[in-house]
Amino acid sequence: MTLHGTVHVVVPDGIDDPARPSGGNVYDRRVCSGLSGLGWSVHEHAVPGSWPRPGPAARTGLARVLRGLPAQAVVLLDGLVASTAPDVLVPEAGRLRLVVLVHLPLGLHGPGAAAEKAVLTRAAAVVATSPWTRCALLERYPLHPQRLHVAEPGTDTAPVSAGSPSGGALLCVASVVPGKGHDVLVAALAAVSDLGWRCVCAGSLDRDPAFADAVRRQARTGRIDDRLRMIGPRTGPALEAEYAAADVLVHASRAETYGMVVTEALAHGLPVVATRAGGLPQALGRAPDGSLPGVLVPPDDPGRLAGALRSWLGDTGLRERLRGSARGRRGTLTGWATTADEVSRVLQAVSP
């Protein structure tokens, strides 16, 4: 094992909290582990605060961490921290080798564009988690293409889910927040209530409690609350059990930079019914024969989502074709070692 040097990784506090699982947290943890395995000396700095909406105490804590690092240190920062603190990061850009890992471009869908631009344009390098995100950043900000890299999330190998003849076991894995489109999903499910299905929604219920309550009320109004289970977050073996029991993943997200849950489902051989928001089509990909291992519909369109679900539930031949395609796509997925290799190359390039 070659010793590459030292990297300081700055992440939001609580990335290992099982009550708040997220793709970004998993990515950060797996990259840290992978870099260590490649020979990097990894020093992790978890910064407390309500990122990406930090208060003064959080900014002070981040500043304290950065001031304590030696000159020319290589620093890999989670974008939720970096892109919201230009007042802290920009003054350090000349002293430290800053690499920003962008899971979610904060300036694309909110008021944070100026802050994000200030940080990303001063960073030594930027790592995006999908080709879609890289293109979005290049369109939004004056970034040099050679400093903007892609390291897609990896996927762990998993057993193939058996599936049922009816295809009626639907699974949604996402925090219950407006961006993930649970209200769109419930509207679509209500429109196919004449068909046989049951849906499990696994994801945090406390990130936006008011929205979660509204989704529950919507399900009751649509008279499907007895068929829709909102079970809260699941990780590890508990989440694996949900994949094993499912027939198809349903993902109604309004915006997504990649969608790790899609490749997780494909790793289990599960077809995917999802929106074509952001990087989701890239995550879904195609099987070696060119077939699509799922169905993509426009975001925020309950009618089109309902139509896709009706086709899935009512067409045995379609289900078999999509299952075959998903199992073909399963064999093309890359592991987390590839992700760590990509990030490692970026860090080596900026190292003094």
Overall shape: globular
Question: How many runs of DSSP E, i.e. beta strands?
Answer: 12
The strand order across the widest sheet is 2-1-3-4-5-6
- What about the largest sheet? 6 strands, parallel
Question: What gap, in angstroms, lies between the N and C termini?
Answer: 20 Å
Query: SSE string, helix = H, strand = E?
Result: EHEHEHHEHEHEEHEHEHEHEHEHHH
CATH homologous superfamily assignment of the largest domain: Glycogen Phosphorylase B
Assign the CATH topology of the largest domain. Rossmann fold
**From the helix content, strand content and strand pairing, which structural class follows?**
alpha/beta
Quickly count the helices.
14
At the first level of CATH, what is the class of the largest domain? Answer: Alpha Beta
Q: Proportion of β residues?
A: 15-25%
Structural notes for this entry:
- This protein is of the alpha/beta class.
- Helix content is 40%, strand content 17%.
- The protein has helices at residues 23-37, 56-67, 79-82, 86-89, 113-120, 131-140, 182-191, 209-221, 236-245, 260-267, 280-284, 302-314, 316-330, 336-350, and strands at 5-12, 40-47, 74-78, 97-102, 125-128, 148-150, 169-173, 198-202, 228-232, 248-251, 272-275, 294-297.
- The strands form 2 sheets. The protein has a 6-stranded parallel sheet.
- β11 (272-275), α11 (280-284) and β12 form a beta-alpha-beta unit.
- α1 (23-37) packs across α14, α7 (182-191) packs parallel to α8 and α7 crosses α12 (302-314).
- The longest helix has 15 residues, at 23-37.
- The radius of gyration is 21 Å and the shape is globular.
- The model has no long low-confidence stretch (mean pLDDT 94).
